[in-house]
Amino acid sequence: MLGGTSKTSASQTAKDMERELHRTFRRLYASKPRFFRAPGRVNLIGEHTDYNDGFVLPMAIDRGITVAAAPRQDRRVRVFSASMNESREFDLDYPGPRQRGLWLDYVEGVAHALMSRGVRLRGADLALTSDLSIGGGLSSSAALEISVGKALLAVSDQDLDLVSLALAGQQAEHQYVGAKCGIMDQFTAAMGRAGHALLIDCRKLEGTPIPLNLPDSSVVICDTKVRHSLAASEYNARRSECDRAVAALREVLPGVKALRDVTPAELDRWEACLPEPVRSRARHVVTENERTLDAARALAAGDMVRTGRLMDASHRSLREDYQVSCPELDLMVAAATAVPGVFGARMTGGGFGGCTVSLVRSDAVENFRTSVSRDYERATGIKPAIFTVIASDGVQELAFYHGQGETD
Ligand code: GLA
């Protein structure tokens, strides 16, 4: 199984955290909770294509956020975050101010996004715990939105399809958090599939599971431990550059609604109409869509060499054409690709810090860990976190706790 080496430790940590969360919940609140968990994600390829109606190829990972939840008789939602070690609350009928820069923005945002879709929510007591580093580039925010959204729906006896839940999470980001993200992270947290990556068509909002049944390869994450402050402003700048590319290309290609609709041949023919840096941004998106479809075929065929080459090309394109990499990500990728047994490596997520993802022969992972950690620390003075991940399911109620909480 791809990425199989970390299973025991990651799931053991998650179980210990859930037990601790149960104790915390019983200390804080009088009621008996149900438990819900949503995963983080790593994107194998297809970066900055989701908000261009394009294709992405992420997988949900075996790290995530767990929520313990019970209904209340009134309209309040009380939330305790174990990672932040603090409690906050809000009233479902009186929305608080938006974009306060608090972790509560995600929770309150998803509650209001669900209600704006006609869902009737009840008040709830919630406690959360996480084995994902917060803001570390593995989509802890989407895991938070989707786990809380699922918990609120369940304790309110309401049902909602997973695509709508993902859209509610994205709406929370847009309205309450103030981040104009695409749909990839929430879609993956909601609909990831164990043992598979998901090829998501971000226009149709459809995910096709791509099996990752390759016995001798691992997906390895390297966390640079840096997050540059320009990430949010540059993200929004890239979005508007893509919009400018679409507006200009529409003059000559009237059918174009998004960069997804432009083929590489059309871009070659018309790119002179685009000023820089808009031209380079468009080139990244158009070529990245092709690479993503190509990588999905290669992965499904078990062709790790081809998948790895596409990942390398994706990183070059993100660094040179899209310009969302940074020295730490480039150093990490260079350190990774220098190790024997590495098929490919690239930055993953929005960029300007966060994590890289590498495809590594399983028997080379130990050497990879030592050598990348040493090279990166030597160059930056920062000790990275390096770990393998397993493709996991999207949001779920945890059966272990369902209706059989501890009796003490
Ligand atoms: C962030 C966003 C996603 C996506 C990536 C870049 O993770 O939340 O929607 O745009 O950046 O691929």
In percent, how much strand structure appears in the residues? 15-25%
Structural class: alpha+beta
Oligomeric organization of the protein chains: single chain
CATH fold-level name of the largest domain: Ribosomal Protein S5, domain 2
Shape, please? globular
Name the helicity range: 40-55%
Residue stretches low in confidence (pLDDT < 50, at least 5 long) are 3-8, 402-408
CATH C-level label of the largest domain: Alpha Beta
Major beta-sheet overview: 8 strands, mixed
Radius of gyration based on Cα positions: 21 Å
Q: Please tell me the CATH architecture of the largest domain by its name.
A: 2-Layer Sandwich
Detail the topology: elements first, then pairings.
Blueprint: H1 7-28, E1 34-45, E2 55-71, E3 76-81, E4 86-91, H2 104-116, E5 124-130, H3 140-155, H4 162-177, H5 184-191, E6 196-201, E7 206-211, E8 217-227, H6 231-252, H7 264-270, H8 278-300, H9 304-320, H10 327-337, E9 342-348, E10 353-361, H11 365-380, E11 385-389, E12 396-397
Parallel strand pairs: 3-5
Antiparallel strand pairs: 1-2, 1-12, 2-5, 2-6, 3-4, 6-7, 8-10, 8-11, 9-10
The chain binds alpha-D-galactopyranose.
Structural commentary:
- The chain is α+β, with helices and mostly antiparallel strands and 408 residues long.
- The chain has three domains: 4-212 and 392-398, Ribosomal Protein S5, domain 2; 214-228 and 326-390, GHMP kinase, C-terminal domain (Alpha-Beta Plaits); 231-323, GHMP kinase, C-terminal domain (Alpha-Beta Plaits, 2-Layer Sandwich), CATH 3.30.70.890.
- Helices cover 42% and strands 23% of the residues.
- The protein is built from eleven helices and twelve strands.
- It has helices spanning 7-28, 104-116, 140-155, 162-177, 184-191, 231-252, 264-270, 278-300, 304-320, 327-337, 365-380; strands at 34-45, 55-71, 76-81, 86-91, 124-130, 196-201, 206-211, 217-227, 342-348, 353-361, 385-389, 396-397.
- Strands 1, 2, 3, 4, 5, 6, 7 and 12 form an eight-stranded mixed β-sheet that branches. A four-stranded antiparallel β-sheet has the order 9-10-8-11.
- The longest helix is centred in the C-terminal third of the chain and has 23 residues, at 278-300.
- It is globular and about 65 Å long.
- It starts with 6 loop residues before the first helix and ends in an 11-residue tail after the last strand.
- 50% of the residues are buried.
- Alpha-D-galactopyranose binds at residues 47-48, 50-51, 181-182, 184-185, 349-350.
